[in-house]
Design goal:
With 378 residues, the protein is mostly beta strands. The protein has a 6-stranded antiparallel β-sheet with strand order 11-22-13-18-19-20, with no helix packed on it. Strands 12-21-14-15-16-17 form a 6-stranded antiparallel β-sheet. A 3-stranded antiparallel β-sheet has the order 1-2-3, with no helix packed on it.
Length: 378
Amino acid sequence: NYVHITLDEGAVIATSKFEGTEKRIIRIASKYQSGRFDDDRWHTVTVVRTITLMTLSVDGINDEIRQYAPEIDWLVNSFSYFGGIAKEKLVPGIKVKNFRGCLKNVTFSNFIYLAKFTISEMTTDGSIFAKSVFKLEFIRYEADAYLINFITLANQAYGKSVIRSAGDLSLSCRKVAVSEDTLSFNSGKHFITLPKWNSMASGSLNDMLISGFQLRTQERDGLILFHGSFPSAVTGHDYIAFELIDGHLFMIINLGSGHIRLQTTAEKITDGSAWHTVTLERVGRTGTVTVDNIKTDFSTPGVSANFIVEEPIYLGAVPWPANETHSVDFYVPHSIWSANLRKGFVGCLKNIRINGISPNTAIIFQEQQKSLENGKLA
C-alpha cells in the first residue's frame, strides 16, 4: 500500500497501489517544447490520493485515474520519504535512483476519510436483489489530521519521532563554485564560523541533535569545534566542543548544570593518512559519539536537558588573544584544554553535518574569506 512520485526520462510519474490490487499510474510530460521537467526550472507538483481516485497536477496540467480497493476503509501511512528510500524500506517493483536536485515547499498532509456502505433493494424484471453501494464521505478530523513541512523540520531536527535526514543534503539551492566542502586549516590560528544549531535552542526536552564531520590530521593537539554561550546566572554556561589531545578525540559538553569530558577514541587518530568519521547523536541529557563505527555513550550531569546557545559555531579555533598582553571579549571554559593552550586545529575537515544537514561550508567560506579579521583559511 503506497503512493510513489518519481521523475523518469523528464516526465513526472505518480504511482498508487493498494494491497491485492494492480498499481495505477499517471504520467505527465512538460508543456514546454522539450516535453521534459528536468530543465533547471521550478515546477509545482501536487498529488491527491483517496481510496477511489488519484489526481496528479504538474504546473497546472491535471490528470486523474480511478482505483479500486475493496478491502480498505481508510488510508493509513506509517512512513514517508522524500528524495529517496532507505534500503530497509525498499518496495518491490520500485527501482528508481534517488533524486538529485532541489525541493522546496515540501509538505505532506493526511486526513481521515470515513467510508460508509449502504444496502439498497432494487427490482429488475420482478426480481429483488441487494446491491452494495460504496459511498465516500470526506470528513476531516482536526484531531487526527496533520500537516508536515519536511524542510522546516529537517532544519530544526525535532527528533527521530517526526523526521530524520540522511545523506548529502543542504538547505540551499545555489550552485557552489567549490567542488566539495573540504576545509584545510594550515596554521592552527584561524577559524570559520557557522550558524548556530537552531534545534538545540528550542528548549525541548526531547531535542535531538545529529551532527558529524570527517577529519584528517597529523597534529596531536587542536580545537576542532566550539559552540558555546557566555556564562549567565539564569541559563548557566551551555557549550559543546570537540578537540584533539595527544592524538585522541575528546568531546566536552555542558547543558548548564555541569560538564562532562568524554574520550571517544581508544587509539590515536592523528595518522594523517586516513579520514576519520565522527558522529554525535543526542536526545536530552543522553547521547552517543561514534568514531569510525566505535560508539561511546554519555549522560550529562544535573537536571538540565536543554542546550541554549545564540552564538555561532567556531571551526578550527576561537578568537583568543594574539599574545599574553592582548585580551578579547570571548570566553572559553577551562574544561576545553586546547583552547586554553591556544592550539587550533591543523588539518582537514569535510562532510560537516549539523542536524544531518550540510551547512554549506564552501559557500560560507567564500563569504567569510574576505571579511575574517583574524586571518584566513588556506
